[in-house]
């Protein structure tokens, strides 16, 4: 019985150490050294090459390094009946909260303006806005979106959420759901944070029309998936100054091609898909616990649901 570790762009050492010490009855193999394919029962995966999963006839589960599983389900040859387990380790959620909070403050407190003013040696204090008068819109209100909302609420911001389905929210967070309520939500989002997963329903969900429903001068933080907010529409709405600035961690094509105009746009900040970097130790433990659950005949958590698409 073997666990195959295939984690692109990741320092796999801490992961392998946890797997080796916690799963002593399992052979830990590092891709591409797959060995006997019939022994592979689990894959710890981040962008495992397409066409590979179907070669493992005794696969019991695929464990995603990320909360998003689009890197797995995009594989046209993916076996249909293998459970896919998402990542919901606290360290990933905490990192996403820190990233969101950093950029909210960057925009809310005018630091993005002061950077430009400093370049011109200009001493120009900007008007103060109290956090309670700044409304932050979070698209995607699962465990990540909700945690970001709770943190921003604690910091005093007004938070509005949007998701596909009805939900009960606490802490004064106003919640909208479904396509019908999307405009009402966008109208309130002075700083829009996207943490939606990429599914058939969310691909190109936010186009020029939706971006123009944000209040004039709004900011966009995309830390969900690139293909949800249309990149060329975002550029044109930025160029028309309806949106003041954007921070993008995720893109249609990653790494972002060097000739992409987003790289050099004066009001765009690029980060290389680092908003939620799992802590190797705790995230590996999260996978170990799910493997133990499966071995004990219990359901793993959180399980990818094909009908929801995430
Ligand atoms: C990162 O993108 C993730 O899916 O967690």
Topology:
Elements: E1 2-7, H1 13-22, E2 27-30, E3 40-46, E4 61-64, H2 70-73, E5 84-85, H3 90-108, H4 111-119, E6 135-139, H5 143-154, E7 158-163, E8 174-177, H6 182-188, E9 191-194, H7 208-211, E10 218-222, H8 231-239, E11 243-248, E12 268-270, H9 280-295
Parallel strand pairs: 1-2, 1-3, 3-4, 4-5, 6-7, 6-9, 7-8, 9-10, 10-11, 11-12
Helix pairs in contact: 1-9, 3-5
This protein binds glyoxylic acid.
Glyoxylic acid binds at residues 66-68, 87, 92, 276.
Description:
By secondary structure, this protein is an alpha/beta fold. The protein has two domains: 2-89 and 278-295, NAD(P)-binding Rossmann-like Domain (Rossmann fold, 3-Layer(aba) Sandwich); 90-270, Rossmann fold (3-Layer(aba) Sandwich), CATH 3.40.50.720. The chain is 29% helix and 18% strand. It has nine helices and twelve strands. The protein has helices at residues 13-22, 70-73, 90-108, 111-119, 143-154, 182-188, 208-211, 231-239, 280-295; strands at 2-7, 27-30, 40-46, 61-64, 84-85, 135-139, 158-163, 174-177, 191-194, 218-222, 243-248, 268-270. α2 links the parallel β4 (61-64) and β5 (84-85). α1 packs parallel to α9 and α3 (90-108) packs across α5. The protein is elongated. The structure holds glyoxylic acid. The site of glyoxylic acid has 6 residues, from loops.
